[in-house]
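Interim report to the steering committee. The following record documents the input for RCK N-terminal domain-containing protein (127 residues).
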Amino acid sequence: MRIAVTGGNEYTEFFLGILAAGKNRVTVIDRDKEFCERVCGAYDVDAILGDPCQECVLEEAGIRNFDVIVALGPEDTDNFEICQMGKKIFGIRKTLCLVRNPRNVELFEKLGVDQAVNIPVIIAGML
């Protein structure tokens, strides 16, 4: 499976390690050059340096050829925008995003994100 992952943070780095251990072709898209270099050195992933909120950066990454896009950035609005572009402009089959504000989970899913994830909501659901 071809998976694009956006947002350079501790979640992203851990997630990339899990994905790279499988039989996935993974590309990270982020504006932080050091992060891109670090994950490429640590895992079998490709990296595109640029702002994933910009359509031209996603186009350059060849996003049309991906199966899934996972947005793990720090801003809910950016993650939503990335998923929306992936689905509506590039025809990505499945979109997932991390949301910090639990109120955005239902809203983002109603607006077309396949899976909006809020960690406290998931933990509460496990209780």
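The chain has a mean pLDDT of 94. The committee is asked to note this result when reviewing the revised timeline.
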